[in-house]
Structures are given as C-alpha cells and as structure tokens.
C-alpha cells in the first residue's frame, strides 16, 4: 500500500476541520476570555494607524488606552489582522485564528512525529494532539488564543531540534530560530515552561546520537539565541519594562495558583465535560481530563517499548525517548496535583503561570508523541498503516463530543464590538491588566472626549487622536493646568507648539498633565520608543537580516553546486 505525501496533508486538514467544525458556523460563541475579537480590533487600529509593532491600544482601560501589546503576546493577532485585511469580518478572522492554531499544531506535530516514528506514526501523533481534550478546553471553554498557538509551535521547535542534532549541516538552525521566536510571540509564559523541556530534549538527543557533541550544542544555542533575537521586540520590553505596569493583580484572587490544583481522578479517570470556571470547589466547572484514550495508549506504548527493549528488539535511542516523554507526562501531571505545592512555593517566577493545570499542555504533548510510537513498534508496513488509520479513527470517535461550542450566537461585528454592551466590555474587561503603574486604581467611568481644565481658564478645540498619538488646540486666557485623558507611561512625548514640555501625573488615575501658558497653542502627544524598546526593535531587525543572510547564503551554495 503506497500513500503519496499529499494524502497526509489532506488527512490532517480533515482532522482540523472536524475539530473546528463549530467554528465554521455563522455567528460567535461563548468563551471565558471573550476579549479576543476586541484585541483583534485594537490591533487593526494600530496597523491602519501605522503603529508597528503595535504596543499601545487606544480604547481599552475605559478609553484612556494602555500598553496591551507591549506585554500581551501579539502573534495570533498579527495573523488575524492579515485575515481581516483580506476582507473577513473581525468575528470570522478571530475564528480563523483558532482554526489556524489547530492546523499548525497538526502539521508541526506530524513533522515531529514523522521524524521519530515514520509517516503513519506522525499522522497518529498529529491527530492525537489535535483531539486532546485540553486542546478543546483552550479553544471552546477558555478561548485561550495565545496558549492555543503556543501549543501549536511546541512540536515545531522539537522537530527543528531533532533535525539539527540528526543532520550534518546547519540547515535547520534558522528553522529552530523561527519556531522558537513564534513560540515566544505566542505565549511567553508557556515558553517559560516549554524551554527547559526543549533544552533537555536536545541534550538527550546529542547524548544518544554521540555525533559532534560540541558542534551540536553550539548549533542549538545559536538557534535559540536567534529565536530570542527575532522576538526581542516583544520579549525584552516584557522583561525590562514590567515595572511600569500593574502586574500584582495577576497573582491575586482568582489568579492565585493555590486555587487551581486538580486531583488525579479528575485528570485521568473521568470523561466529564463542562464550560464553567476553575477554582475552589468548582465541582461542575471546567474539565481537566487528560483523555482516557490518550493516556492508556501512551502507557501501553511505554510498556510494550520496555518489553521489546529487554528482548533486544528495540533501539536504545527509541527506548530512551519513550522514557523521556513518559517522565514529562508524569512530571507534568505531578505539577498539576496538590502534592506539588512546595515546588510552586519555591520555584522562582512560577507563580506567574497562575494555573497549575497549564502543565496539561506538556501532558498532552508528551502522550501524543508517545501515542504515535504505537505504529513504530509494528514492523510490518501493512500493519502500521492499518493500525494508524484505526487509531486515528478511534481517537476522533472517542473525543469528537468534546470539540463543540457551548452556545453560539448569531451576531455581526457591529453587535459584538460597537453595541453599548459590546463597547463597554471592550473598554472595561481586564481593565487592571497592564494598567500603567502611575494609576492608583482603574477608572470608574469612561474617559472624557477632550482634555479637562483643572486650573486656570482655557478652551480646547480640534481634538484628534490615533492609536499612539493625541493632538488638540487650546486657547488659554489664564495659565492653565490641563489633564489629558491618556495614561502617563514611559515613551510619551508631549510638545507645546513643537517644543517638549514637562509632564506630571500627580493625579489618582496617573493621567498626563501639563501646564500651558497664556495664548493659542497646539498640543501634541506621541508615544516614542524608550531605549529598551529601541534596542529591542533593533535586535529583532538585525536578527531578521542575519537570518535572511543565512538562508539565502545556503540557497546560493546549493544552486552553485
């Protein structure tokens, strides 16, 4: 039985369409994080206003704006903006972002699984990954766009790492750089827990292959650093400018990790499904199942692999890979369980993950990879094909019921974004996220349409604003103190008649305040790059140029031969 390569692409696309079939229906659906459409709308405003990379959004924070995309990973929204610019609505573009996450994860898991187990093993790993129940939780329950995309690129990074170690050339160093950058730009917190696993995986492969150990380690480091460089425009400000926004609320109340541990029973021995939230005593809330079919298959593969190894019928490399992924599975399960609380209390920065059950990402990754090993253990080609197709069918059959929306509402962009309810939601939901540090509390009402005269006598007119700029004219009859409805934040440059002026933020909301002398004046505000943002942008541009140089140099070498 011969299968052409395009058949696998068709099968992965079919699996994606089955998993995302509800996303292809008109309207929009209920999810926990119901700001995805709004974030895409704000990204659209940025791009059309020439703000790139997008950092400041004008409508959130109750209309005062705040630096959302200086801290919130932007990659899915850049993709969504491309889709929107092709003519699709914001609602359909957002759903396309979710569908793309399924498709990318399927393709990259296939490439990784194929490298380990062959074509049909790769196909099985791909479908297991797409149809892992937690994958559905991310999309249909939580609406966690960025985590969904991070899951998509994890197998891509591992695939590139394997290729770097396995090959004699450096062809996949740029591939690793791109994949790692895309991971960082999808979800920086997920990259935080994925990176150690990727690093250990690379070192294990180098030890197993025993080929040019020093050179392979150098190549992996170069690939990783290139990836960090490509994503530097986002990652450096996140780290170095964190002190300029309120992040303490991300660890308080609902977001305290102590409220979100999960028992083994709920992880392994249930097929419960619901659309509620996580937290204390949420007995009928969010589903946390690993997937009974998934973990049983992974355990069977592990047992059979051990048996075949001791019978000397399995290569040492495969045996150790089985152990590696099985330990990732067990270790990640442990991090979700209450018994891991001491690790959570002592590991630095880990509390920013907020939810221990985020480690289910590594659980479904590891058991999906292992599940594909079922095919590898069969030596007969026909048996491999039949087994793979049967298990693909069973995977979909056992899990398809979880891949559905709770409710779908017939609506348009206008109803979602610009109705009174929709616009209020866009402006006020997650209002404390990334609120500039000078604000003592979030605003209690919407921003005024024009600057306010706090002292003196003046009149404002010709007020204009964009995503990262604000401009107005003012006629001052008596020296006036003017409060502009924009949060102060490093990078804002305020000019009076083209000359820089002193800015104050000595008010409860930390709004930009200036003193204007008597006369007619033009006031302009522009968000400029801080030294950190300038260097971050420069590093990304230089990294991108070096990446293109490496790629085209290799192509020229190949063509000259």
From TrEMBL:
Residues 69-424 form the Membrane protein 6-pyruvoyl-tetrahydropterin synthase-related domain. It holds the Pfam family PTPS_related. Keywords: Membrane, Transmembrane, Transmembrane helix. InterPro entries: Membrane_prot_PTPS-rel_domain. The chain crosses the membrane at residues 96-113, 149-165, 177-208, 220-240, 252-272, 292-310, 317-337, 357-378, 385-403, 534-552. This is Membrane protein 6-pyruvoyl-tetrahydropterin synthase-related domain-containing protein. It comes from Candidatus Shapirobacteria bacterium CG03_land_8_20_14_0_80_40_19.
């Amino acid at each position: 039985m011969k299968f052409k390569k395009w058949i696998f692409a068709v099968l992965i696309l079919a699996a994606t369409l089955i998993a995302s079939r509800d996303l292809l229906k008109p309207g929009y659906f209920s999810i926990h994080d119901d700001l995805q459409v709004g974030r895409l709308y704000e990204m659209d405003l940025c791009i059309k206003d020439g703000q790139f990379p997008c950092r400041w959004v004008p409508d959130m924070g109750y209309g005062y704006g705040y630096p959302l995309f200086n801290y919130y990973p932007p990659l899915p929204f850049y993709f969504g903006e491309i889709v929107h610019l092709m003519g699709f609505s914001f609602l359909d573009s957002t759903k396309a972002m979710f569908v793309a996450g399924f498709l990318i994860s399927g393709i990259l898991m296939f490439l990784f699984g194929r490298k380990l187990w062959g074509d049909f093993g790769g196909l099985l790993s791909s479908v297991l990954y797409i149809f892992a129940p937690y994958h559905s939780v991310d999309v249909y329950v939580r609406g966690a766009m960025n985590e969904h995309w991070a899951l998509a690129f994890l197998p891509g990074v591992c695939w590139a790492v394997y290729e770097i170690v396995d090959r004699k050339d450096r062809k996949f160093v740029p591939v690793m750089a791109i994949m790692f950058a895309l991971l960082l730009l999808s979800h920086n917190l997920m990259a935080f827990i994925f990176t150690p696993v990727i690093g250990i995986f690379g070192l294990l492969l180098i030890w197993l292959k025993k080929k040019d150990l020093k050179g392979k380690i150098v190549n992996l480091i170069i690939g990783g650093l290139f990836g960090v460089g490509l994503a530097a425009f986002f990652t450096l400000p996140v780290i170095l400018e964190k002190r300029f926004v309120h992040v303490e609320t991300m660890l308080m109340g609902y977001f305290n990790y102590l409220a979100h541990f999960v028992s083994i029973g709920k992880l392994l021995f249930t097929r419960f499904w619901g659309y509620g939230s996580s937290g204390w005593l949420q007995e009928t809330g969010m589903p946390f199942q690993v997937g009974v079919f998934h973990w049983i298959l992974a355990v069977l593969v592990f047992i059979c692999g051990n048996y075949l190894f001791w019978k000397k019928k399995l290569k040492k490399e495969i045996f150790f890979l089985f152990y590696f992924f099985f330990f990732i599975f067990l270790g990640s399960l442990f991090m979700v369980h209450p018994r891991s609380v001491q690790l959570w209390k002592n590991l630095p920065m880990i509390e920013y993950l907020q939810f221990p059950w985020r480690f289910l990402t590594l659980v479904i990754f590891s058991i999906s990879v292992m599940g594909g090993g079922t095919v590898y253990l069969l030596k007969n080609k026909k048996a491999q094909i039949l087994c793979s197709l049967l298990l693909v069918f069973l995977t979909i059959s056992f899990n398809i019921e979880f891949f559905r929306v709770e409710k779908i509402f017939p609506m348009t962009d206008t109803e979602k974004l610009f109705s009174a309810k929709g616009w209020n939601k866009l402006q006020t939901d997650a209002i404390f996220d990334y609120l500039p540090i000078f604000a003592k509390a979030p605003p209690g009402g919407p921003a005024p349409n024009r600057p306010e005269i706090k002292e003196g006598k003046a009149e404002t007119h010709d007020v204009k604003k964009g995503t990262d700029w604000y401009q107005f004219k003012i006629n001052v009859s008596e020296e006036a103190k003017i409060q502009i409805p924009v949060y102060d934040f490093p990078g804002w440059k305020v000019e009076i008649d083209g000359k820089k002026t002193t800015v104050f933020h000595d008010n409860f909301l930390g709004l930009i305040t200036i003193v204007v002398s008597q006369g007619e004046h033009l006031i302009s505000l522009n968000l400029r790059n801080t030294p950190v943002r300038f260097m971050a942008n420069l590093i990304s541009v230089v990294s991108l140029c070096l990446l293109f140089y490496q790629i085209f140099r290799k192509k020229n070498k190949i063509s000259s031969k």
